[in-house]
């Protein structure tokens, strides 16, 4: 399993807008980190830099000892497959089957995209896709169109697709924002069970205070692109967490006694 180390990372867009400003932190294998901050704080830009879709202006991002900010596009591809994503809006292909959506998770492991289409997929890939669906409890819906499932079921398919990718670190961008509370809890239970049993590091953007306090090992908070808090979740209370979404918050080194 891999660790993630972000060192003095900055991203400046045209017009001198600092999306990320000198951010540093490390996430160990098996650690669950909640990433908090109001809209525009730099959370999404940070995720895009970690996945290699955004090139930082300065600083480094190490996956184990590999600095992905220095890799060419061709060398970045095999590293990127180690980073699994779970999105708020599921990002499924709605008019295709659940089984086909999960097979797409193997794109980083095949020479061509055609090898991830069901009629051309190898027996090994097909068996793996069914095993991933079985792990999230949806093997019986493999032939169903994705848009015929409930929101909670669709997010489970998205998690199965992520498992198909065989990642070593998971970035979850508001994975339960589109779900009702019951479905959201079920998805969080499933996601945390999977990352725990596989020893994966996970960074999760969330806004639900109760969920953050229940599932997170650590809380990292950004404000206007800067890191203002990096603390064990057990040392924080709800008012402190809620204040992270106020634009005028000043929380550096704040702790709960």
UniProtKB/TrEMBL annotation:
Keyword Transmembrane helix attributed: no
Residue stretches making up the ABC transporter domain: 4-249
Keywords: ATP-binding, Cell membrane, Membrane, Nucleotide-binding, Phosphonate transport, Translocase, Transport
GO MF annotation: an example: ABC-type phosphonate transporter activity
PROSITE patterns in UniProt: ABC_TRANSPORTER_1, ABC_TRANSPORTER_2
GO cellular component, one term: plasma membrane
Protein name according to UniProt: ABC transporter
Organism: Bhargavaea cecembensis
């Amino acid at each position: 399993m891999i660790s993630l180390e972000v060192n003095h990372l900055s991203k400046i867009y045209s017009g001198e807008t600092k999306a990320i400003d000198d951010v540093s932190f490390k996430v160990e294998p098996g650690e669950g980190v909640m990433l908090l901050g109001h809209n525009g704080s730099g959370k999404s830009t940070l995720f895009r830099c970690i996945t290699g879709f955004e090139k930082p202006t300065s600083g480094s991002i190490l996956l184990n000892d590999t600095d992905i900010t220095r890799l060419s596009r061709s060398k970045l591809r095999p590293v990127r497959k180690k980073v699994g994503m779970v999105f708020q809006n599921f990002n499924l292909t709605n008019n295709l089957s659940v089984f086909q959506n999960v097979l797409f998770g193997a794109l980083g492991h095949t020479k061509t995209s055609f090898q991830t289409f069901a009629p051309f997929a190898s027996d090994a890939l097909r068996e793996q896709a069914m095993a991933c669906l079985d792990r999230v409890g949806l093997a019986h819906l493999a032939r169903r169109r994705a848009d015929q499932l409930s929101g909670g079921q669709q997010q489970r398919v998205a998690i199965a697709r992520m498992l198909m990718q065989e990642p070593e670190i998971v970035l979850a961008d508001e994975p339960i924002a589109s779900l009702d509370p019951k479905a959201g809890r079920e998805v969080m239970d499933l996601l945390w069970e999977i990352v725990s049993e596989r020893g994966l590091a996970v960074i999760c953007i969330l806004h639900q205070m109760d969920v953050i306090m229940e599932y997170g090992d650590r809380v990292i908070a950004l404000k206007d692109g800067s890191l203002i808090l990096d603390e064990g979740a057990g040392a924080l209370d709800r008012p402190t967490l809620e204040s992270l979404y106020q634009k005028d918050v000043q929380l550096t080194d704040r702790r709960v006694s």
